[in-house]
Amino acid sequence: MSRRTRDEVVYALMRTWRASRLQTDLLDDAAFHKIGINRTDGRCLDALSEGPMPASVLAQACGISPNALTTVVDRLAERGLVERVKDPADRRRVLVRLTPLADHVSQQLYGPVVAWSLRNFEKYSTEELALIEGFIDAGRRFQAEHMRYIAALDLSWEVPDSPAGGTPEPG
Length: 171
Hints:
By secondary structure, this protein is mainly alpha-helical. The protein has a domain at 6-99: Winged helix-like DNA-binding domain superfamily/Winged helix DNA-binding domain (Arc Repressor Mutant, subunit A, Orthogonal Bundle), CATH 1.10.10. The chain has helices at 6-35, 39-48, 55-62, 66-78, 100-121, 126-152; strands spanning 53-54, 82-87, 90-98. β2 and β3 (90-98) form a beta hairpin. α2 (39-48) packs across α3 (55-62) and α3 packs across α4 (66-78).
């Protein structure tokens, strides 16, 4: 068996990561379609899996305006997936939280994914899992930073001459 070079492994990892992100998007789309919600609604449900939060925090977590979030929360509340409740620490403040129905539906849709992940984590040492977690978290933080870059980008629609293959190698 021939050993792959570092570059071959890096490019294979990048292709695999991209394919994994696409597959995750397709899985989420199938789950959202099954329960009759859209991607933005699904993002809000995912954010709420971290726990109840004020609408302003939820809007920021989902990347939408507070006005748009009101529509999303109304839609999800109508489906019985979220509810607005008074904050026990400050009764003037309202929190949005998942309902037991949302937890039940999520368990049916994603429970097998969680179970598969937990089984597969057994293949790795604690140190290896920490390394993987660090890599994924660094990618998440970079993507959050890169969103600001994209927002500020003065996008050019003139295609420059590029090397054969069209896609520049990562640098």
